[in-house]
């Protein structure tokens, strides 16, 4: 009986974790994009400030 139950439990776990990992990847991608954008803006401001002096 345990052999029959284990695949169904792991299959349910796989089904449950797939949307969560997809959302996790999406949020990480959005966060990475935002940080890159902010980093680019800060770098631009730093260069402008450095050249202004």
Give a verbal description of the structure.
The chain crosses the membrane at residues 28-50. Keywords: Membrane, Transmembrane, Transmembrane helix. This protein is mainly alpha-helical. The protein contains one helix and no strands. It is rod-shaped and about 50 Å long. The mean pLDDT is 79.
State Rg.
23 Å
Range of strand content: under 5%
Please state the overall shape, judged from the principal axes of the Cα atoms. rod-shaped
What's the helix-strand series?
Answer: H
| Biggest pleated-sheet summary | none
Low-confidence stretches: none
Distance between the termini: 76 Å
Q: What's the mean pLDDT score? A: 79
Number of strands: 0
* Structure classification: mainly alpha
Number of H- or I-type helical stretches:
1
Helix content: over 70%
